[in-house]
Each structure stands twice: as C-alpha cells, then as structure tokens.
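Human: I wish I could look at a protein chain and see how it folds. This is the protein in question:
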Amino acid sequence: MERTSTFRERQPGRSRPPETARDDDTPLLDFQMIEELRQLDEGEGFFLRELITAFLDHAGELMQQLARAREQGDRYGVVGAVHGLKGASLNMGALALGAYCRNLERQLRANPRADLDGAMQTLLYLYDRSCQALKALGDTADAP
C-alpha cells in the first residue's frame, strides 16, 4: 500500500496553510525514498534517524541564513539559502518543501526584486510541516 501525505492535509491543531500553498498536490514527503534510506541500515532505523537529525540541523541553519540575508537586503544570500534548502529537502525526501524552493529560486533569479512576504509565509509553513513529519518518522525509525 502506497502512503502519501500532501501539504494540503490538515490535522487538528495545525494552522491553515497560506493561500499560496493550498492548491499544490505535491506530496509532503517521498515515502518511497525515505523507505530506501531506511533500508540502507538493514531496516534498523538508526541511519535514517541520523539523516533526519542532520537534515533538521542543516535546514535550520539555512533558514537562519535566509532570515539574516532577508533582513540585510542580500538577495544573493536569499537565493543561496533557498538553493541550499532545495537540495537538502529533495535529498531527504521533503518533496513539497524542495519543490517550493525550486520554484522560489527560479522566481528570485528571474526577478531579484520580487516581494518575498507571501513566499516566506509559504516557505515557513512547508518547512514547519516537513520538519514535523520527519521528526515523527525519526521517532519511529527503529519501531517494528
């Protein structure tokens, strides 16, 4: 049975997604990729948990870089942080976040003066949801 989770899903207590995020059906996580990562350590889950922890740390640093670059008006720094977050997300199986970063990076490269307010709300929403979902997987990584 294939498991999917889209960022359109709502759970009790979760905030409503920003308007710009609501119409996308990109799965939140790529469970097939995550299962392949889990299999790299013969299904024990330790390796997957380490990968998730590394992703959460690195993605958190990238989000801080993004915030600093935005505060300083450093558009190249913003693009660099979004680019890094795109790669990290796609490599970890955080599809919706990675896809959104890919599109945002293209938009910023095409129009460096684009308004970031709405884009940042969506990015923060997807980042939060992706991190929550990955943390939950990490917590159950070694469960049978």
About this structure: Helices lie at 31-39, 46-71, 75-92, 95-110, 117-139.
